[in-house]
Amino acid sequence: MESSDDNPLEAYTALLEWMTQNGGHLHESVQIAKDERRGVHLQVKKDWGNSVPKETCIINTPLSATMSYFNAIDHRLSDASGDQGLFSTHKVVFPRAFIDAVGPEETTVFFLMGQYLQGSDGFWFPWIRTLPQPGSLTTPLYYEGEDLEWLNGTSLLPAREQKMKLMKDNYEGCFEKLRGSGLENAERYTWDLYLWASTIIVSRAFSAKVLSGVIPDNELPEENVSVLLPFIDILNHRPLAKVEWRAGKGHVGFLVLEDVPPGQEVSNNYGPRNNEQLVMNYGFCLPNNPCDYRILSLRAPPGSPLHQAKSQQTKMYPNLAGADDHYYVFNIFYPLLPRDASMEHSIFSPALLNALSILAANDRELETLEIAEHEIRIPDQYANSRNLLAALSQIMIELITHIVKLKSSSQGLQQPENLKQIHAKIYRDSQITLSETALVIATWTIKRARQHGLKGNWEETKNMLSSHMACVPAGRFPEEVVSRIRVRILERKSLLTNSGELFAFNELLDILPPEMQNSCKTCFQRTSIEIEKAIPMLRGSSESSPFAFPMFLCLTVAIYKATHASTEKRQLPARLAKWASFLLEKYPPPPDDVAWMLEDEDDEHLASLFDDVVESMRTQNSDALASLADLTYSSRGDSWWLSPNWIRWAWMIVEQETVQVPDDPLKMLSTDAQGQGSVMLSTVSYLYIPVDPEIQP
Fold first, then answer.
1. Which structural domain, as residue segments, surrounds residue 580?
2. PANTHER family, alphabetically (predicted)?
3. Structure confidence by residue, pLDDT tens digits, 284-334
């Protein structure tokens, strides 16, 4: 069934003649063309005087030339004025029992197989001979040997295996029913032919709505009925092309909804397909696909807050049962965004960030959880931006892991040797770029949370952005990608309302009043020295010590409490005072008459060693703690600021109120950051201290 090598367009010219003989039409301004890059396609004639104007019907495919389930069942129109023979079986007739048993979708596949088996005697032969033949399809289902190596590390490989198993199961079930129906020569309907026909339908079929001009809506199934439109299916895909398919009484029309100048290709629009969908369904993808995005498989473990919230949402709104989760990472050029979408939501779908924020939420944040029909989220209110930062940190870890996995799995690959490998490489490269640009965006928001003392003006933001982009290795992205990253950051509002809410330990003392800083620094240094002496495992870790943040928290709350106990005490800044009050409200202080213990045995062991060190300092080196006596309660008694109960109280709060952020995430953009299939990812712990925009700094 291959076309002539002497005239590569001969088969398509014959197809056009066949379509015209059956009542179809191609607009006079358009011709069939072929080149190495686009293959066979349609284009406006170069010598055509003017652009083809929008609303022009380029192709009319007659309904009698379409192929669908309605042909297989020899459908007769209910309208007496209609053409009763419009949907003919054209000599491929299956027993009705078989059709009813396998359903419309599989019936269409077997009907196409039957028409293929008729060869040159078949009605649709002029069209079928122009289709990719069983040995020339390029979807992953046809990958073998070295081709499969190009799918390693990508989600296409498990998707291919899952789809192949499903299709084989479907074929075996349908074939048994076909053979049992008594159809003559049923053995000719082979697996290879079934795979071909299924692929053709997935890659070329249209919705049954294109037949709505002659078949009433109540007779048109909403799903599982596909329609093949000979000649219209020649058109190549162009993302965002403005086109329309118009159902008529005798034709299906293809219209352009934008002017097409002479010499330009007339393209179809398969919809906003990402590269994974294009490769899986059509066997090709686009190196600069603006509609590219990645689907994340995010599980809600049974019993987790996310699982419970989704279950509650389904109970409240039963219509959502079985609905897909929209967990997407968009490429930096993605055009189909709401105008008011935030900078983060221009890259990470709201459903994804909301789900991650619930998984990363602490107990107090979960108390504010809101469940509505269209979203489950942690609302934006005082102290809840920690939740956004924790969610972004989690997605940064996923992005880094994805980048390393793809890079490491490509180490043994050479240059692509065939069309399948070429498109697999385009897909791999686009997936890496997509995750890398998303990592740049997520890192920007985290970086803002790490910048203290900002005024928030435009010049300051531009300077900070320049510093941020300088961390991206030179030449890593094309200039248009770098420019779009800047546009995304500068022109869209961030979900993070305030900067400077994440602190390393060495930054904490700077937010105390200057007159408090020296005495606090002296106390912390002396205490750290004693701790490192007594606990060998903590030596050399004064700033990363597990007691650093709890000590600061205890100190802050003690100063706050002392302020309330005596008007002569020096005041905390308003930001710290509100934070201390908030913590005391959300995390009830420990009792004086019960000794607290940490749940984790290792943590409790460390805390006990810390207690011993502090007690020794109180009895043997009281000067080390005396410098803070005028800021806090006395160091005597059991309720003082570093008592065992208070340090455990602070320890538990720190576990809730810190954010673990990947260390130097943009180093993964380096060309030598290939990895070995896994990544040893280090994180840095930052203490979250919220900003209240109503409080002046």
1. 502-661
2. SET DOMAIN PROTEIN (AFU_ORTHOLOGUE AFUA_4G11040), UNCHARACTERIZED PUTATIVE METHYLTRANSFERASE
3. 999 999 999 999 988 888 999 999 999 999 999 999 888 889 999 999 999
